Amino acid sequence: MEQCPVVQIISDIESIQTKCWAWRAQGATVALVPTMGYFHAGHISLMSWARDHTDKVVVSLFVNPTQFGPGEDLEAYPRDPERDAAMAREAGVDALFAPDTGAMYAPESSTWVGVEGLDQRLCGRSRPGHFRGVATVVAKLFNLTAPHLAVFGRKDWQQLVIVRRMARDLNFPTQVVGRPTVREHDGLAVSSRNVYLDPHHRAQAPNLYRGLQLAASLVEEGLRRSDEIRARVRDFYGRTIPDGEEDYLELVHPGRLEPMEELEGEAVLAVAYRLGKARLIDNIRISLDD
Ligand code: PAF
Predict the structure, then answer these.
(1) Nearest CA to 158 among 183, 130, 189?
(2) Alpha-carbon distance 232 to 215, whole Å?
(3) Coil, strand or helix: which one is 211?
């Protein structure tokens, strides 16, 4: 049987920096896959893509406290570091960087990265401070691992847009790559937080994506106005996700995240829904150019 290579588990700031810079000095290309752990098929697809496109793959595993608001699920966030290490090894990851909070944030840390404007839209409205925490930790991870590529899932579209803007504005020599959302057989976007869904809510959850697909087919039929498209999707959600509560459903410009009244060129229809203990997000890219 073929042996999987050993994944190095590193928790120390100096060691990860030394390792990544040594790889660079040897001429190796490095990819970073930032995660908060509790790996699923979505994470593995990012790691596999990175494996196929660079010489060395670093996965960070850090449940970042600064991106959780008061009353959010920081304590409850699902964790299984041993299983994660085994999965990372299977996926051919070279180093798993798993620092503790004290290592990532020095005492009296007071420097923040904010991506103004973009961080106020969509999830930013109901999760104030969330994207400041994300941008800060991702900037720190970029500094620690000096990656040529950093790979993110497109399920968190706003996060991807914000990280891209942050990398460009701060001149990180890192290409930010967005990879397609991985879905369960019934269309539900895979997420570590899906474990919060009880069976009753799990049965309703795939309708979130079906509503987005409905929007795409309405556009194919000729609908262009955002309010009309969203009214039809809301009607569908009302019937098929009766226990859910909308946080937002917005048609936005894919790069600026500004709401669009009328579809032109390309747009993203993004949704966030509370369903039982879970807050689900998803999106679909809609293009008139296709
Ligand atoms: O998407 C996530 O898991 C997190 O927001 C990230 C990018 C790892 C930053 O903590």
Answers:
(1) 130
(2) 8
(3) helix
Q: Does residue 1 carry a pLDDT above 80?
A: no
Average pLDDT in the 46-51 region?
98
Q: How far is CA 128 from the centre of its chain?
A: 17
Q: What is the pLDDT of residue 206?
A: 98
Whether the CB of 36 sits within 6 Å of ligand 1: yes
Q: Are 8 and 96 in contact (CB under 8 A)?
A: yes
The separation between the first and the last C-alpha atoms of the chain, rounded to the nearest angstrom, is 45
| Residue to probe by mutation, ligand 1, list 156, 163, 166, 194, most atoms within 8 Å of CB | 156
13 by Cβ neighbours in 10 Å (0-12 / 13-18 / 19+) ranks as middle
What's 175-186 look like in SS3? Answer: EEEEECCCECCC
Active site residue 43: yes
Amino acid at site 101: T
Residue 289 Cα to ligand 1 middle (Å)? 31
Mean pLDDT across the chain: 97
Pick the closest to residue 270 from 178, 168, 177, 154 (CA basis): 154
Residue 194 corresponds to which amino acid? N
